[in-house]
Write a structure and sequence with these properties.
The chain is an alpha+beta fold and 203 residues long. Helix content is 27%, strand content 27%. A hairpin with a 6-residue loop joins strand 1 and strand 2. The chain starts with a helix and ends with a helix.
Length: 203
């Protein structure tokens, strides 16, 4: 399932022109690829940007825009933190052009789900049920230690997990993205499928 805002940007990415971000090697034997940018087919909009964590993303983004004065817009979602934080660090003005919400499907059934913060002992469960939620295994423990992961339990049995992750740097705001994943063996069984939002409103 693809969210509408993500689909809109992904459709632009399919037709975008790619630019590599290169860093000269110290031994003067060429350059190493450290990131990339995707620019819309009309060359006016940056639709995706990524660099390795040790890079100065603000300097890279500013330099690219200066070299391409035809760029007037940068599109980003709240989940693409690197690009959004870089734009805010540059002091660029922004506006919210859309928001995506899941359809609400209420249920009359009594729910007994409880949620708790994930512990290090939940690592294997999260790894086994990771469906491209975490980019790499080490990220699981990182997010657990940050307090961003919650476990949903029904009568003492884990039935899924949720995330509550900051969308921006703390100095900009205190908003967060919330998402849930119901473990595959517990899907299509009633409340855990039809009304997950009820269970996680405590976030």
């Amino acid at each position: 399932m693809v969210d509408s805002q993500e689909l809109y940007i992904e459709m632009m990415c399919n037709e975008a022109e790619a630019y590599d971000v290169l860093e000269e090697l110290t031994d003067a034997k060429g350059a190493e690829k450290i990131g990339y940018l995707l620019v819309s087919s009309d060359k006016t909009t940056i639709v995706e940007f990524y660099c390795t964590e040790e890079c100065d993303t603000v300097a890279i983004l500013r330099s690219f825009i200066e070299q391409h004065p035809e760029i007037t817009t940068i599109l980003t979602m709240s989940t693409t933190q690197q690009l959004m934080n870089s734009c805010l660090d540059m002091g660029l003005k922004y506006e919210v052009v859309g928001a995506n919400f899941r359809d609400w499907q209420d249920t009359q059934e009594s729910l007994s789900l409880q949620s708790r913060k994930a512990l290090e002992s939940d690592y294997n469960y999260l790894k086994e049920n990771n469906e491209e939620v975490f980019d790499y295994d080490e990220q699981i423990n990182e997010w657990i230690s940050n307090g961003w992961v919650y476990i949903a339990e029904n009568e003492g049995q884990s039935v899924g997990f949720g995330l509550c992750t900051p969308t921006l740097k703390q100095e900009y705001n205190e908003t967060a993205d919330i998402g849930i994943l119901v473990a595959s063996e517990h899907r299509h069984q009633g409340p855990t499928t039809r009304s997950p939002t009820n269970c996680w409103v405590c976030y």
